[in-house]
Predict the structure.
Amino acid sequence: MRRAPVASPDIDQSSRNARLRVHGLVVAVAVVIAACSGSGPAGSPSTASDAASAPAAAVADVATTVADATPATASPATTTASTDPSLPEDATTGATTGALIEARPVDVIVPDDLPDGPVPLVVVLHGYSGTADVQQQYFRFQDAAAVRGVILAYPDGTPDRRDLRFWNATDACCNFFGSDVDDVAYLAAVVDHVRSLHTVDPKRIFLAGHSNGGFMSYRLACERADLFAAVVSLAGATYADPLDCSPSEPVSIAQVHGTVDEVIAYDGGDIIGNEYPSAAVTAATWAAYNGCDTVIEPLGDAIDVDRDLAGAETTVARFGDCPSTGAVELWTIADGRHIPKLTDGFADAVFDFFDAHPKG
């Protein structure tokens, strides 16, 4: 593979639980790092002071516990951005793609033997407090992408007040400090940037995200359904209110979620009072957007995506009568947690889903 250039003392139990869920989002990256490095489980983090009344203060407190979450081996993306003014201008911000990428470089990984003709692009989004480098190590898509001739793009979210990277995704996750960063425009610019360097198939541009990256993938599917063909979201969720999303055309969806996820609950929940739907409701909501039937049926044999769980632990179910460009599946990891230790088969399963669901 080669890299392309480029404080009230009184706090009720629900508030305390909400803060602990945010704490889990932050600590999750440390578990990813441990899993990628082959070390043992991360130690139990110390909790923040209970003297916090405002949501922002609660987030600030828990964030401090893992301010050094990025692994020592991680380094900034080595891409150098093109600032060609002829590149497309974003209709919302007025900024050129070159300017957006110059401000926020992206790591682009290209197979050594890239096939002739248009090739697929997968944009991979990290979770809250994660980084592009950590996400590369966690999903481990590179080998599958090399075999299949797929370009991978790993962008970074922006640092919040505690220097923890996030995506400005849904109202639930994870813009905790009210930033006005436009990640929809930025990630569309990432696609345009890669297209300026390589011949990308416009029918095969995909999103894969974990946690906050999954939430962001859903926002992009809502607002840029014209651009992205399919989404695989691991431990993310769509908007709680279906009216907050109005995709212009179908987008294929695979919602992947562990039943004992301790951070983003399989059955839905909230983060500091901002609700997110369950995995099943997330899938059903997108089935409705795409015009599918309301019935979901098991699809074939279970698959093995978590190496910590015995056997093939993940069931796959699909909604019926979806359009060819708008399939919706729910992959349920029985006893799976927020950060499953992914098998090599996970990448293949994700890429199989993408291969089967280009735009029409």
Observations:
- The CA atoms of residues 261 and 337 lie 4 Å apart.
- The domain at 79-356 is CATH 3.40.50.1820 (Rossmann fold).
